[in-house]
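Bench notes, afternoon.
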Amino acid sequence: MTPEPAAPRRRRSWLSPGRLAGAGALILALVFVVSWIAPADGYELQLVDPAHPVAPLVRIAGHPTKNDGPIYFVDVRERPARLIERFIPWVRADGSSLVRSPPISSALEQRLGQVQMSDSQKVAPYVALKLLGYKATARSGGVAVLALDRKAPAAKVLKPNDVIVAVDGETIRTVAELRAHLAHKRPGERVDVRYRRGKETREAKVRTIADPTDAKHALIGVTVSDNLEVKLPLNVTIDAGGIGGPSAGLAFALDILQELGRNVTHGRRIAATGELALDGSVLPIGGVKQKTLGVRRAGVDVFLVPAGDNAREARRYAGGIRIIPVENVRQALRALATLSPKA
């Protein structure tokens, strides 16, 4: 008998369902790893940091140093966002927010934050000591331009080292005053800017632009700093430990008042945020969501927040914390005095 020919061997296809599924899983894993490592250019995450006591940072000559105290400040930690965090919210840290990066270099942003903190360390003691009746003087001859947003109309007029001295006929001595004036403007409005360039004073009309982090707020597209000189009758130093920005000004002033004998807290643990102007005004700040959550994590009773949009946002995340909107330091003191002492 003639043997039957052997059946041909079946070759396993590389396109079999099992292998396709494995390849797909590998590709998804690679995409996940790459998107977790790769940065989301132009975006950063604002992260929650628990509120910190102010007292360990403040030193007043002739007064005992405190290692703890009932007044807290809050800051916001920031880092570049990862690509996956831009598109998938649930992988972000609890309480974090994705925001566009400022239109300036990271080095300039860090430098600006340190300048703003340095100004807060001068303004807060000045305001506190003036309220207590001490003789203190403060002087600033305008705001110096550090850098400009190249896309802003102001970049066609202003240059680094120019000093803005007035906007719409209103004298501008500090960054806080410039922000307070622009807070009443809408993006796209024109403002009259008077500035010094060397020994020459010039004027120009500049169209405002929208704040990249809040489209309702107007900016003129400049990064500026104060040239602030403060003379105090007491030696007050504040060590911020590398934290930047202006938002601790109110907390610093309240703690100085408390340490110099004013009953600020009335038995409660108080947190405060807000940029402080030389006249004691409390100006809006950023990162309110993260700061409110940071206050909650610290177990604080009351949170003083700049009145307006800041206070409304704080109430959204307050939980059981009492939010007190304030426009100036005197109002903050009156509001705290009406609270009954905590049992």
